[in-house]
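Each record in this resource describes a single protein on a pair of labelled lines. An example record follows, reproduced without changes.
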Amino acid sequence: MQARLLLLLISICLSSWVQANTLEEAKQKLSQKDFVGARAIYETLANQHDAKACYNLGLMYHDGDGVTKNMDEAVKWYTKSASLNYKEAQYMLASLVFQREIQSLSYAQAADYYQQAATLGHVKSQLNLGMLYFRGDVIAQDLALALKWIQLAASNNNSEAQGYLANSYQQGEGVPQDSVKAAMWLLIATQNEDKRFNTRHTKMLNYLSAQLSPEQRSAAKQQASQCQQQQLQGC
C-alpha cells in the first residue's frame, strides 16, 4: 500500500515538473518568435485543462501572434481559463466588456468576473469592483462594499485605489470624514512605485495640506509612517 502511494506521489511530481517545463518551453518559443511551436504546446496543455495555457492561447488569438487575430477564439480560451479559476483571465474578460471590445458578455457578467478575480486576490479587479459598487450603475450601489474592495486594493499597494480612498475620507463618502486620514493615504500614494497617478495625487495632497493645521499635517505623516511599517495592513 505504501509503495503504491509513493509511486503515485512520484508520478504527480513528475507530471507537474513536465508541465512546468512545457510551459517554459512555450515561453522560450515565443521569445524566439516561434509562434507555431508555442501555439502547439499551449493547445496541448489547454486541452488538458491547464488554466494558464488556456489564457496564453487566448492572448495569442487576441494579439494575432502567429495566428489570425480572432476575438471569438480569444474569448473562448479566456472563458475556459476563467472557469478554471485563473484570475488574470477573469480580469481580462471583465476588462474587455467594459472597454467595449466584446459584446458577447453583459456588464453584469463582467462584474461577476471582477468579483471572482477580486476574491482570488487580483488587485486591479478589487479596485474596479469597488468602483462598480460605488457608482451603482451596473450593480446596486453599496458604499460599504465599495469601501471594502477599494480599501483592500489600497492595502495591496494599488496607487489609484489609495487616491480614491483618500478622496472618500476627505469627502466622508462611505466612511466618517477624516482629513488627516485622507492626507495619510495621499502621502502613501505619492510614495508609491507606480508613478502614473503621482501628479494627480501630489496636487490633491498639496491642496489638502494647505487646509490642515501643522498638528494635523504632523499626525498624517506619523500615521503614514506607521501604516507603511505595518505593510499597509489595518490602517
Q: What stands out?
A: Residues 98-156 form one domain. Residues 110 and 165 are 23 Å apart (CA to CA). The first helix runs from residue 2 to 31. The radius of gyration is 22 Å.
